[in-house]
Structure formats: structure tokens, C-alpha cells
Design goal:
It is a single chain. The protein is α/β, with parallel strands linked by helices and about 325 residues long. Helix content is about 50%, strand content about 10%. It has 15 helices and 7 strands. Strands 2-1-3-4-5-6-7 form a 7-stranded mixed sheet, with helices on both faces. Helix 4 links the parallel strand 3 and strand 4.
């Protein structure tokens, strides 16, 4: 059973030799879900949050895998705490956070790698709606790392009958697929909130994918990754489900609700709101065309209405569907 603050986080010597230890940092919906998945795979799991009775040191000092599932705004803080404590040299770091750091524009895995250059860092991302996984419905995800052995270790730790895990060697692409689709999910929520129909939504998602690829390849990702589970797969799942918090944000804005009111009543964090701000700033700096994300940005900032955002996208200059240069929007 997953350890909580009321249970001991320490194993006997016999238990330690028979079970590998995974520590999940962040006891929100996503962290709790991933802890339960690892527990189904018959591993010893510790679930920790800043409100836990156990100290952070006690839950990470002998962990084989440390999985971070904290929100984007908490990533730098938890990295600083873990770095101050120190971790065993064999420990693998897995990050399951989707977002961009507002100060550096870096992804979570880049932040972890900068802090722990001698440790393998693995990215977990895919079409994984937490509530469905909690119901033990089948799902698939990706563990991505430049260290193949580390990715395989994480794969074995989390794979079970209802959670199929693949690996690849493109962590930045895998991470950006899961991060950028949150911005598009807001746009998809707007599309459904305005009742624009299936044609409009299909057009939106089809044009969103090359926009994601433009950003990803500019930052060093492989374009192929975006056609996999963490790109297209996550895009489809998030943009077509009311369970998605980012989708809920867009849907609410389309119905005339204020962003403040939507976020106040939201169950959890809609990472796409912060990601949009950082993405647009990054795209401007790097000269990357992001027309859909730019309209989401204007909507979130109150500079346009949902209807005006749709009109702006429909009125853009006519062009060929496929360009030789992916960066030419």
C-alpha cells in the first residue's frame, strides 16, 4: 500500500532487498495517481508533500527513483530542497510536471538536469487523464531519457496491466508535447464552449500540431516525437475531455466567465495558463510563429474575446497547407 504521513516510510532490511523504492513528490491528483500506479506494479512507494509528517530527507535518502509531480510553480523550490539534502548517486529522477519556468523558460527536466548533472533524468508524459487512471482504465505513457537504462528502469517501475509504458530518447520533445498541448486545450475548450462544431475543432487540432512541432524543433526536439503518445496522443486526449482543467478554462472563457472566477473554482492547476504566457514570450524572442497560442494569450490577457480570437484565426492570410519549411507559418 502507498505510504502516507500516518505510515512508516522505512523498510526492514528484508523488505528493502525484495522491493525497489519509489518516492513520489507531490500528493495532488497526478502525484497520487502515479503513486498508485507504481504500487500496482508491486513496488514500495512513498508519497510525500510539503504537508506530510515525514521529512523530505527521510523519504528520498534511499529511493531508487524520485518522481516529481509538483506543479510548475513548485519545481524550483523542490529542486533546491532536494539538492540541499543530497541524493544517492544511483538515484534516477523522473519528472511528470508539464510546464515552462516563467523565469528561465526552461522545462522541468532541464531544471532538474542543471541541478543534478550526474543523475539520469527521465520525462514521463502521455495521454494520461488522472481520473481515468484512478478508475483503473487502460492508458499508455512514455518514459523518455538520453539514458536508455534509466528510462528502462522507470518503465519497469510503473508498467502494469492497465498502464502501458513506452520509452524513447527524446526527453525535450516528449516534455514539450505534454506542455504545449495544454495551451491548445484552452483553445479547444473555447471551440466547444462556442459550439463551433466538429469541423472547426478538427481544423484547430490539425493546425495546432505543426505549431507545436515548430516550437519543439526550434528548442532541439525531434519532430517525430510529436506524432507519438506525448504529442498527438496527449493533444487528442486533453482537447477532447471535460476532465482536462485547461479545456475547462477555455470552455469557461467562451461562456463569458472571467479567468479569475474559473481558476478560483477549478479543481487543481491549469498549467496551460502560465505556459501560454511563457511560450508567447519565448516565441517572440526566437521568432517562432505561434498564431493559435498568440490568440489564446490575448484571450487570457483580456485583450480579445473568444469570438474575436476565432475571427482573427479565420481571417489570416491564405497559404498552402504544407510548407517545405516547417517554420514558415
Amino acid at each position: 500500500m502507498v505510504n502516507t504521513t500516518s505510515q512508516s516510510n522505512h523498510l526492514t532490511e528484508a523488505e528493502a532487498t525484495s522491493q525497489k523504492i519509489t518516492t513520489v513528490l507531490g500528493a495532488g491528483a497526478w502525484g497520487s495517481t502515479l503513486a498508485a500506479v507504481a504500487e500496482r506494479s508491486d513496488h514500495h512507494v512513498r508519497l510525500w508533500s510539503r504537508r506530510s509528517g515525514e521529512s523530505l530527507k527521510s523519504v528520498i535518502e534511499d529511493a531508487e527513483i524520485i518522481l516529481s509531480a509538483v506543479s510548475m510553480k513548485g519545481v524550483t523550490s523542490i529542486i533546491d530542497q532536494v539538492k540541499e539534502i543530497g541524493i544517492p548517486e544511483h538515484t534516477i529522477i523522473v519528472t511528470a510536471t508539464k510546464g515552462l519556468d516563467s523565469e528561465t523558460t526552461h522545462t522541468p527536466s532541464q531544471l532538474w538536469k542543471e541541478a543534478f548533472p550526474d543523475h539520469p533524468v527521465v520525462v514521463l508524459s502521455g495521454p494520461n487523464l488522472a481520473k481515468e487512471i484512478q478508475q483503473n482504465l487502460p492508458a499508455a505513457t512514455v518514459m523518455a531519457s538520453e539514458d536508455e537504462a534509466a528510462a528502462e528502469s522507470a518503465q519497469a517501475m510503473f508498467a502494469c496491466e492497465t498502464f502501458r509504458v513506452y520509452i524513447n530518447n527524446d526527453p525535450i520533445g516528449t516534455e514539450l508535447g505534454g506542455t504545449l498541448k495544454n495551451v491548445i486545450a484552452i483553445a479547444a475548450g473555447v471551440c466547444d464552449g462556442l459550439d463551433l462544431g466538429t469541423n472547426a475543432k478538427a481544423g484547430l487540432l490539425t493546425r495546432a500540431l505543426p505549431e507545436m512541432i515548430r516550437v519543439g524543433t526550434s528548442l532541439g526536439a525531434s519532430s517525430e516525437t510529436f506524432f507519438g503518445l506525448s504529442g498527438l496522443g496527449d493533444l487528442l486526449a486533453t482537447c477532447d475531455s471535460p476532465l482536462s482543467r485547461n479545456y475547462q478554462v477555455g470552455y469557461g472563457l467562451a461562456q463569458g466567465k472571467s479567468l479569475e472566477d474559473i481558476l478560483e473554482h477549478l479543481e487543481g492547476t491549469a498549467e496551460g495558463v502560465n505556459t501560454t504566457q511563457v511560450l508567447v514570450r519565448l516565441a517572440r524572442k526566437e521568432g517562432i510563429p505561434v498564431p493559435i497560442s498568440a490568440q489564446v494569450y490575448r484571450l487570457l490577457r483580456g485583450k480579445s474575446t473568444a469570438q474575436q480570437a476565432v475571427q482573427a484565426l479565420m481571417a489570416r492570410e491564405l497559404k498552402a497547407e504544407f510548407d517545405d519549411d516547417l517554420f514558415d507559418d
